[in-house]
Design a protein that fits this description.
The structure holds 2 protein chains of 2 kinds. By secondary structure, chain A is of the alpha+beta class. Chain A has 16 helices and 22 strands. In chain A, strands 13-12-9-10-11-14-21-19 form an 8-stranded antiparallel sheet, sandwiched between helices. Chain A has a 5-stranded parallel sheet with strand order 3-2-1-4-5, with helices on both faces. A 3-stranded antiparallel sheet of chain A has the order 7-6-8, covered by helices on one side. In chain B, 16% of the residues lie in helices and 28% in strands.
C-alpha cells in the first residue's frame, strides 16, 4: 500500500478520499487552490499544500503544480478524484514518469478508452450491445430504406462529418426517411462539405443504467451491481438509485455480468463504470465507460458495504482483488440526492456564498457526504455540488420515506440549494412508480415539474 | 502499510527506503528534466530528509552532495511543510499547516477568512515577495539582506519540476529578511522575501 497520497481534487470527493486514506492508514496531503484555503479537506488533512490560484487551469488542472506538490511533500501516489484530470491519460503518464502512482487506470488503459467511439467498438467486439446503426455510410435511398428496416424505426439520420447534434434528423416512417434524407444530404454538404450520412437507432424514452466494475492488475474482475441515473436535468445527473427499477433482477444481473466480462477481456484496470441506455423494452445499449471513481459511488457502497475508494487504492497499489463475485451481496435499496448550490426558481443558476447554518440529517440508513460547515464560504469558481445525501432502506419504499425525512431535516442556510427538486421528485408519480426517463425533467420543464409538485 | 510509530531499529529500514527512493527518484527526475536547471531536491521520508544539491559552480555531472540529518521539529519549523507523521505523534495541532511562515502559529491552522490572505509580514513599511508556484525556492544574489531592489526585480526563482518561476520584488526598497531558506520546498503564495519600502526621499535618489 502507499505511504502517502496527494489528493489532487477538492470539495466532497477530497474529503471522501481523505477518509479512505485514514481507514487504510495511509497519509494524505491535500492539494488546494487559494480559493479552497478554508475548505474542510484542507483543515482535516494530515498536511495541505497550496498549489495555485483559484483558476483551476493554474491549480487543479495544472499537472506541473500537482506533481511538484506530490514530489516536495514526499508522496508516492496521486489520487485525481473525479472531473479535473481524473481521466487525462497525459496526466497519468506524467505522474508515472515521476515515479508516482496514478490512482486509476494506467495511461495506456485510459488511452485505449479515451474515445467514446473507440470504446464502443472495442467493448462491442467483446460482446456488449451497442446502439444499432447502419453498416457504414448510406450509398443511396434504397440502401437507406433497407438499413432502416433492418434497424427498426424510429431512426436517427446522422452526418458523418460534424458533431454536437448538428444536421441530425429523427424519422419514424420510410416516407419521412425518403424526404428527410435529401434535406440531410444537402445540409451536410453545405455545412461540412461532406454529404455522407449514416443511421442510428433512436431510443425514445430511455433510462440511464450504469454498471460498476472493479478489475485488478491480474485481470480478475467483479461487478458491484448497477445504478440508475435516469433523473437528469440537461444531461446532468441529479439523483441516482440502485437497484434500477427499469430491469428485473435477472436482467440486471445479466447486464452486470456481461459488462465485467467485456472490460476484463478488453484489458481494463481499476474501478470503472459502464454506462448504458436502456430502451422501453429493457434492451441495454452500451454508450461509454468512465475510468474513474464516480460522484454516485456511495449508492453502490450502501448496497454492498464495499469502500469503493479504498478498493480503488488497493488495486492501484497492485493488490489482487480480495473479493470474489460471490462476496458481493447487493442488499436493499439506496438513493443519492445531489445537493447543489443552484436556484430552481432561476433556471438552476449556480450560486456561491457563506453557509450561515448547516445541519446534516441522520438516522438509520442516512449518510451525508459533504464538505460544508457553518461559516464556510462556497467559492464561485468550481462546480455547484455541495454534497450528497444518500439514504438506504431494505426496500425502495423505505428508502424513499427515509429520503423525504432526511431532505426535510437537511439544513443549508446562506445559499439557495436544489433541495426542492428532490422533494418534488419524491412526490412525483413517474418517480415513485420507477418510470423516470432521462428526458422527462427537460420535456416537462423543471419549473412546471416543481409547480406540479407544489400543487399536489 | 507504514508503521505509524517507528522504533529505533527502523532507522536502517528508513535509510534503505531513502536510498531506494533516491535510486528511483533521481534518475527519473534527471532523465525527465534533462538539461533543465534542477539545482536542488529535498526528499523526506519519516524523520529523515535528504537534500540533493548540485554544486553551485559546476554543471550537472551526477555528483550529489547528500545531506542527511535528523530533521527534528526545530529544523522543520521554518520550512515549507510539516514533517511526516512517521516522526511520531503530531508535534502540535497546527501540524497540518504547511505555511510555516504565514504567521498563524501552532494550532492556528488556516484561520484567515479572506483569500488570498494579506501576507502576515506586510504592513505600511514593507511588502513581501510571495512564491509564484509550488516547488523549491532558490533566492539569487539580489535577495541578500540590505540589497536595494526595484519593483519587478527578480529575487530568485521557484523550481517547478525543472521549470523556473521567477520570484519578483513586490515594490522598490531594501531586502529586509529571507523568510524561507534557500532550497526549501515552498507552496504557492508562500511568503519568501521581505522588502522594506523605500521612503519617498530614498526613492528620489
Amino acid at each position: 500500500m502507499f505511504h502517502r497520497i496527494l489528493i489532487a481534487n477538492r470539495g466532497e470527493i477530497a474529503l471522501r478520499i481523505l477518509r479512505a486514506c485514514r481507514t487504510l492508514g495511509v497519509e494524505a496531503v491535500v492539494a488546494y487552490s487559494e480559493a479552497d484555503r478554508e475548505s474542510l479537506p484542507v483543515q482535516l488533512a494530515d498536511e495541505a499544500i497550496c498549489i495555485g490560484p483559484a483558476d483551476a487551469r493554474r491549480s487543479y488542472l495544472s499537472a506541473p503544480a500537482l506533481i511538484s506538490a506530490a514530489v516536495i511533500t514526499g508522496c508516492d501516489a496521486v489520487h485525481p478524484g473525479y472531473g479535473f484530470l481524473s481521466e487525462d491519460e497525459g496526466f497519468a503518464e506524467v505522474v508515472r514518469a515521476h515515479d508516482l502512482t496514478f490512482i486509476g487506470p494506467s495511461a495506456d488503459v485510459l488511452d485505449r478508452f479515451a474515445s467514446k467511439e473507440g470504446s464502443r467498438r472495442l467493448l462491442g467486439s467483446h460482446g456488449l450491445p451497442t446502439i444499432p446503426g447502419s453498416d457504414g455510410m448510406l450509398r443511396d435511398d434504397g440502401h437507406a430504406l433497407d438499413e432502416a428496416d433492418r434497424i427498426g424505426y424510429p431512426v436517427l439520420i446522422k452526418p458523418s462529418a460534424g458533431g454536437g447534434g448538428k444536421g441530425m434528423r429523427m424519422v419514424r416512417t420510410p416516407r419521412e426517411l425518403e424526404s428527410a434524407i435529401r434535406i440531410c444530404r444537402s445540409e451536410a454538404k453545405s455545412a461540412f462539405g461532406d454529404d455522407s450520412l449514416y443511421l442510428e437507432k433512436w431510443l425514445d424514452d430511455n433510462r440511464h443504467v450504469e454498471v460498476q466494475v472493479a478489475v485488478d492488475r491480474f485481470g480478475r474482475g467483479i461487478h458491484l451491481g448497477e445504478r440508475d441515473c435516469s433523473v437528469q436535468r440537461r444531461h446532468q445527473k441529479i439523483l441516482e438509485e440502485a437497484p434500477t427499477p427499469a430491469l428485473s433482477l435477472a436482467a440486471r444481473t445479466e447486464l452486470a455480468e456481461r459488462a465485467v466480462r467485456a472490460v476484463v477481456a478488453a484489458g481494463y484496470e481499476n474501478v470503472g463504470t459502464l454506462e448504458f441506455l436502456v430502451d422501453r423494452d429493457g434492451n441495454p445499449y452500451f454508450i461509454e465507460i468512465n475510468c474513474r471513481i464516480q460522484v454516485e459511488h456511495p449508492v453502490t457502497e450502501m448496497l454492498t458495504g464495499v469502500d469503493m475508494v479504498g478498493l480503488q487504492l488497493r488495486i492501484a497499489a497492485g493488490e489482487p482483488l480480495a473479493l470474489a463475485q460471490s462476496d458481493i451481496k447487493l442488499t436493499g435499496h439506496a438513493i443519492e440526492f445531489r445537493i447543489n448550490a443552484e436556484d430552481p426558481a432561476h433556471d438552476f443558476r449556480p450560486g456561491a456564498g457563506v453557509v450561515s447554518r448547516y445541519h446534516a440529517p441522520g438516522g438509520p440508513g442516512v449518510r451525508m457526504d459533504s464538505h460544508l460547515y457553518e461559516g464556510y464560504e462556497v467559492p464561485p469558481y468550481y462546480d455547484s455540488l455541495l454534497g450528497k445525501l444518500i439514504v438506504w432502506g431494505p426496500d425502495r419504499a423505505t428508502a424513499i420515506a427515509r429520503g423525504r425525512a432526511a431532505l426535510d431535516e437537511l439544513l443549508v442556510e446562506g445559499l439557495t440549494t436544489n433541495v426542492e427538486i428532490h422533494q418534488a421528485l419524491l412526490a412525483n408519480d413517474a418517480f415513485l412508480e420507477g418510470h423516470m426517463t432521462t428526458n422527462l425533467l427537460d420535456r416537462v420543464g423543471s419549473g412546471a415539474f416543481l409547480a406540479a409538485a407544489a400543487r399536489s | 502499510m507504514p508503521s505509524p510509530k517507528p522504533e529505533p531499529r527502523d532507522h536502517d529500514a528508513d535509510l534503505a527506503s531513502i536510498d531506494a527512493l533516491i535510486d528511483r527518484l533521481v534518475p527519473a527526475l534527471t532523465a525527465k528534466l534533462g538539461a533543465t536547471h534542477l539545482g536542488e531536491l529535498e526528499v523526506r521520508e519519516g524523520e529523515w530528509r535528504i537534500r540533493l544539491r548540485r554544486p553551485a559552480t559546476a554543471g550537472w555531472n551526477g555528483e550529489l552532495r547528500r545531506t542527511t540529518d535528523r530533521s527534528g521539529r526545530g529544523v522543520a519549523a521554518p520550512e515549507a511543510h510539516a514533517s511526516g507523521t512517521r516522526s511520531g505523534p503530531a508535534p502540535d495541532p497546527g501540524h497540518r499547516s504547511v505555511s510555516g511562515s504565514n504567521g498563524t502559529g501552532p494550532g492556528g491552522g488556516h484561520a484567515s477568512t479572506a483569500h488570498p490572505p494579506r501576507p502576515a509580514h506586510e504592513d505600511e513599511s514593507r511588502r513581501v515577495a510571495t512564491s509564484p508556484a509550488v516547488g523549491v525556492f532558490h533566492p539569487n544574489a539580489r535577495a541578500a539582506v540590505g540589497t536595494r531592489v526595484r519593483q519587478g526585480d527578480v529575487l530568485g526563482h521557484v523550481d517547478v519540476l525543472g521549470v523556473r518561476e521567477d520570484v519578483l520584488a513586490p515594490a522598490d526598497g531594501l531586502v529586509g529578511e529571507l523568510l524561507t531558506e534557500a532550497g526549501m520546498a515552498v507552496e504557492y503564495g508562500q511568503e519568501l522575501v521581505v522588502v522594506a519600502l523605500a521612503t519617498p526621499a530614498e526613492a528620489a535618489h
